[in-house]
Amino acid sequence: MIVITLTKVPQSLRGDLTKWYQEVQTGVYVGNVSARIRDLLWDRIMKNIGNGEATMVYNTNSELGYQMETTRKDYQVIDYDGIPLMMRLNTTPGPVKHGFSNAAKFHRAKVMTHRTDRKRAHKLQKQVTAIDLETTGLKVATDKIISIGAVKKVENGEIDQFYKLIQVNDNIQTKITTLTGISSDLLKTRGINLDSALQQLKEFVGQSVIVGYNLRFDQEFLSYGFKKIGQPGLSNQMVDLMPVVKKTNKFLDNYRLSTVLKEYSVRNSKPHHALSDAQATLELETKLIENGHLLI
Questions:
Q1: Residue 96 has what pLDDT?
Q2: Fewer CB within 10 Å of terminal CB in the chain, N or C?
Q3: Where is the domain boundary, 88, 110, 143?
Q4: CATH of the domain at 77
């Protein structure tokens, strides 16, 4: 059993805890999770507590059977012959200075230093191209690429875009048209053949690092496409942002692109449009670097 009490903390932090614990009274959370999840949640509390306070009591194998942690400035957890006690500190308070614990302050300082270093490194790094595909389905061997979008930053900081519709012999299913806005008629009038599209994509990408979200899906379709036209595939360094997000943000409801973009405050004006998705993915890559979560 684990009990956590929170006082004057951000509402977003309280919302996170309700995914794992039951709020039995305002600011009082009760639950039963593994030690790993418990520690991860406490770390999250420490990093996001703002000006609030938190105390946690949880089961252990000690003689008394429980242990305590707190961020309060007027109390300290001490060990008295194996018994955890909350000792009130005999200090003369002026106003209590709320804020982050020393550990949290150190963590934030370290993150900010990394962010500065990453921003500097970002300016010196290799050129990055974000790509995205729309297809008729999920099966590489039977489904087809119907659009390719790619976006990269050029030397003056402006965005260079690549977008091609691909002609296919199959009729586009209604559900795909509804999702992507791409119809059979559109591909017949504005599409080009796969051979031309892939060759132009290779020229656009050049030697840049390729990033994507759930990039393995795009890689498999591109590799199959190049093989189909008898040309060597892309040999660029590939970076999938999905595993990065999963490693650094363990508390999202899901890891769909739309959910992740919202979490990182990245706007995507046309979801399931290859060019718009590629643009959003490039912005996500920038955010991850600035936050110290990615280095290319």
A1: 44
A2: N
A3: 88
A4: 3.30.70.240
What residues make up the domain containing 227?
A: 124-291
On whether residue 112 sits in a domain, the answer given is no
- Give the CATH number of the domain where residue 269 resides: 3.30.420.10
- Is pLDDT above 60 for 76? yes
Domain shared by 151 and 251, yes or no: yes
| 165-191 per-position pLDDT tens digit | 999 999 999 999 999 999 999 999 999
Q: Please report, as a single letter, which amino acid is at residue 174.
A: T
Shared domain for 79 and 166, answered yes or no, is no
Higher pLDDT among residues 239 and 120, named by residue: 239
255-284 confidence digits (pLDDT tens): 999 999 999 999 999 999 999 999 999 999
CA angle, residues 93, 98, 104, in degrees to nearest 5: 125
